[in-house]
Amino acid sequence: MTTGARRIDGWTSVALLLTGGYLFMVVWPLIAVLLSSVSREGSFSLDGFATFFSSRLYYGTLINSILVTVCVTVLSLIVAFPLAYVMTMFRIPGNRVIQVLILASMMSPPFIGAYSWILLLGNNGLITRWLEASFGFDPPSIYGFAGIVLVLTLQLVPLIFTYLMGAWRTIDVSLLEAAESMGVTGWRRALKVITPLLLPTVLGGSLLVFVRAFADFGTPMLIGQGFRTIPVLIYSSFVGEVSIDSSFAAAVAVIVIVVTLAVFLIQKFIVDRKTFSMTAMRPIEPKPLRGWGGWMVYLYVYGFLTLALAPLLVVVVSSFRNTLYGQFVPGFSLNNYVNAQRDIIRYVTNTFSIGVTALVVLVVVAVLVSYLTVRRKNALTGALDTITMVPYVVPGLIIGIALITAFSQPPLVLTGTFAIMVLALAIRRLPYTVRATTALMYQFSPSVEEAAISLGASKVRTLVQVIVPALAPGILAGAVLSWVTIITELSTTLFLYNTSTQTLSLGIYAQVIRGQLGTAAALSTILLVLTMVSLMVLMRIGGNRELRV
Amino acid sequence: MTRIALQSLRKEYAGQVAIPDLTLEIADGEFFTLLGPSGCGKTTLLRMIAGFNSIEAGTIAFDGTVINDKPASQRNIGMVFQNYALFPQMTAAKNVAFGLQTRKISRPESERRVEAALDAVRMAHLKDRLPGQMSGGQQQRVALARALVIEPALLLMDEPLSNLDAKLRVEMRDTIRQAQRKAGITTVYVTHDQEEAMAVSDRIAVMNLGVVQQVGSPAQIYRQPANRFVAEFIGKTNLLERALIRQDGKALVELAPGQSIDVTDLIAPDAEGPIQVSVRPEAVKAGAAGLPAQVLDETFLGSHSQVRARLATGETVEFLEFSRRLSLWQEGDAVSLSVDTGLLTFFDAQSGKSIMRGASA
Asked: Could you tell me if A301 lies within 8 Å of chain B, comparing CB atoms?
């Protein structure tokens, strides 16, 4: 005689429905890409891969990408680790504000950084012209390898910094005191005691940086020029610039997924063996700084902040400059906003309608998936949990390609529709939202749910009336964060939009490519304002909650 | 008003047997406690009765009706959790009203009952507070009101007092006892605290390793422990290894060389051989004659002292000393200890089972 948990109930059908939907919407498109990479005109062929590895023009982009990614990852760590260390250990004036600003710079649209460095250090950039005029000196070019590394590093340091700050908060001060009592202090302690404790976080954060840098399309597209990375190759071969069929693009996409997956598995292998569970009873108390060392620390912190925020400031200021045929000319006005107002209204409307719809889908699916995986553990929900993580290692550009490949022919034609934009954005963000919601769900005591059931509440009523409202602040904070990443997303939707579904970030990209720098600056400013307002809302509802991206 | 019958229950977790085979009867309106060390299966059993754990074999019946396949939400139970499990986003009053909403009770009626329930646990004045704004004791009062307001057939409590401080625990257990008496609801209570169990229960089931060791009133399990485990778990006791000798139709136990006690009337007629004698601290008195011993230490506790002394055999005996002495005994002081034979219990040294006359095997 058996009872209770094993019976098939409503949740099983929900789990089946979600799994089915996910297989159809995510796994099938990716399989379609895989199939397309190994076929030509209907028969099996490895021509796509052969072409890729036969010419330096193609496989060189993979080497370039790996070079950029490794440099960016290492540099980000080198910059972020001391930054997080001094921010935790020492009392730095404006600590809270600094953290918020660093977060803001991280959440700013990625390609705005690239674009803004063009405005500063490009051929016709502010600093370039000033240096030429004053000293007759040509600064190193922002275009190419160095520029990409600079822009991506500045963009991704905040990401790993935020991770490290979160981990640091879990280190109990007694660990540091114990080390001190044994005569280990300062940098030796940082290396011997703290670093091993932070290693899982460092690796986890590095993986995120790696995946982001490897898959970033906007930056190398805007300032790479001759230096082509693999996402740029995928883009140009898919849109036909290199006049090669889609099976070649698919093959390159598969190669990218394989590399990302390999890095992910290596990181997981290392982290799984070195995980500690810590809760700080007494977190680290920052100490005041004195003397020369103190000034060096301030210089480091504020210097980084300036570099990280400079691009944003430049974009905002530029948006008020006069332009002629897209290029900046002397004088300030609101012309960039006024002249592009029709476009602006269209982009903003699309951003909101598509973004909000995607967000609603995302939150509902994430709540259901995390509830199922935490509270209804079985083989099916375990599988669901695993497959929702799939897009985590698939770059946005490839999700776009996969959706086009799968849904551009009957039975389901979605290309160019509102639906495919929503779908793409929701899929892209789902792994992050599911993980955040799952973490919330784990913190929520199961006995609260049992209390509701013991009082006679049905399962649906328990979820809707008890669990979701109790988790609402956390879910809402996660939703705002997702909202920010949705409105700044570029690569996922790059292949999927048409003029009626063009969003702000897509608009900026199009304007920069078209050379309309003034309009691009105005749009970027609007997007930045939107992002900042969202982040402020997040601060209000999230309080001091740890922010994870 | 519910009678509960647990018949041959079995519980496994991933192949590990938590409860092999358990049978129990709980009477209508009874305050029944499952008592045992952590990991003994008491919470597991409670959650099986609640419907939160699956049942691998056996049956659970409420008033003769097997409810194995009834989901928890339809068993009409009130449950009080160790961590209170109040809904964090709802006020005290909303928490209490929650269970009434599913029961289609009219609004004024519901409000009246919520008010009454909160009043009964003296929480009416804080009905608009959120759980985060209440102390642990206040939260547990609300949790109790929430469980009782639905007039459940059965009240289940899982270590409800273990997160409270000592003083509040005593206060809350009186509140619980009073509320239960007044409502007359059959109650199953889980705790690892034997003092708490004795204070509130009509009957107690002492559990160890998923097996019920003894069921009885608090006095029964204290005075007539069914085995060595129960004797040691409930209250304090000194266990002395001795031999039971049959001589001239008498049963004798030699407590010290030359000092035997006659236990013929206490012991089961067929018992013999190596035994263990359980000597409760209150069964020992220091006096002019008796077992010679040396004091190890004396801890003064106000109304009495707790004394540890070493017998000539090397065994340590702990006992209670009520005296008006102003100076405490020092280590090495010689004392003579007399034992109240009527307070002793005897166990078979091998099986650990009671060999008292009339003890169930």
From this structure: no
Per residue in A20-31, pLDDT (tens digit) is: 988 888 888 899
Confidence of residue A278 (pLDDT cuts 50, 70, 90): low
Contact B99 A453 (CB under 8 A): no
The count of C-alpha atoms lying within 13 angstroms of the C-alpha of A41, restricted to the half-sphere facing its C-beta, is: 0
User: Can you tell me whether residue A531 is helix, strand or coil?
Assistant: helix
- A58: amino acid identity, one letter: Y
Confidence of residue A129 (pLDDT cuts 50, 70, 90): confident
Between the CA of residue B68 and those of A361, B9, B189, B314, what are the distances in Å? 38, 11, 20, 54
**Per-residue pLDDT at B35:** 95
Please name the residue ranges forming H helices in A389-467.
Answer: 396-407, 418-443, 446-454, 459-461
With contact defined as beta carbons under 8 Å apart, do A4 and B55 qualify?
Answer: yes
List phi, psi (to 5°) of B109.
Answer: -60, -45
Tokens of A535: 């982040």
* Cβ-based burial of B2 (10 A; exposed 0-12, middle 13-18, buried ≥19): buried
A181-206 pLDDT tens trace: 666 667 777 776 777 778 877 888 88
Tell me whether the omega of the peptide bond preceding residue A200 falls within 30 degrees of 0, making it cis: no
Of A448, A465, A469, which has the smallest distance from its Cβ to B85's Cβ?
A448
Residue range B52-71: average pLDDT?
91
pLDDT of residue A546: 44
The three state secondary structure string of A26-95 is: HHHHHHHHHHHHCEECCEECCHHHHHHHHCHHHHHHHHHHHHHHHHHHHHHHHHHHHHHHHHHHECCCCH
Over residues A352-375, the pLDDT tens digits come to 999 999 999 999 999 999 888 888
The partner residue sitting opposite A4, judged by closest CB among B53, B83, B102, is: B53
Q: How many CB atoms lie within 10 A of CB B14?
A: 4
pLDDT at site A1: 36
* Confidence at residue B1, expressed as pLDDT on a 0 to 100 scale: 65
Q: What is the DSSP string of A140-207?
A: PPSSSHHHHHHHHHHHHHHHHHHHHHHHHTTSBHHHHHHHHHTT--HHHHIIIIIHHHHHHHHHHHHH
C-alpha to C-alpha distance for A477 and A500, rounded to whole angstroms? 30
Closest Cα to residue A455, out of B130, B175, B145, B136? B145
Min Cα distance A368 → chain B (Å) is: 20
Are the Cβ atoms of B50 and A466 closer than 8 angstroms? no
**Whole-angstrom Cα distance, residue B180 to residue B157?**
11
Q: For residue A451, which residues of chain B lie inside 8 Å, CB to CB?
A: 79, 81, 85-87, 143, 146
Is residue B148 within 8 angstroms of chain A, CB to CB?
A: no
Q: Which residues of A touch B99 (CB under 8 A)?
A: 455-457
Q: Environment class of residue B285 by beta-carbon count within 10 Å: exposed (0-12), middle (13-18) or buried (19+)? A: middle
Residue A531, C-beta contacts closer than 8 angstroms, at least 6 positions apart: A104, A107, A108, A109, A484, A487, A488
Q: Which residue shows structure tokens 């045929």? A: A325
- In whole angstroms, what is the distance from residue B130 CA to residue B67 CA? 35
Q: Quick one: pLDDT at residue A300?
A: 92
A469 touching B, CB under 8 A? yes
> What DSSP state is assigned to residue B120?
H
Burial of B156 (0-12, 13-18, 19+ CB in 10 A): buried
In three-state form (DSSP H/G/I as H, E/B as E, the rest C), the secondary structure along A465-530 is HHHHHHHHHHHHHHHHHHHHHHHHCCCCCCCCCCHHHCCHHHHHHHHHHCCCHHHHHHHHHHHHHH
Judge contact between B32 and B201, C-beta under 8 A.
Answer: yes
Contacts 24+ apart (CB under 8 A), A327-333: A327/A124, A327/A515, A327/A517, A328/A119, A328/A124, A328/A517, A328/A518
d(CA A25, CA A358): 14
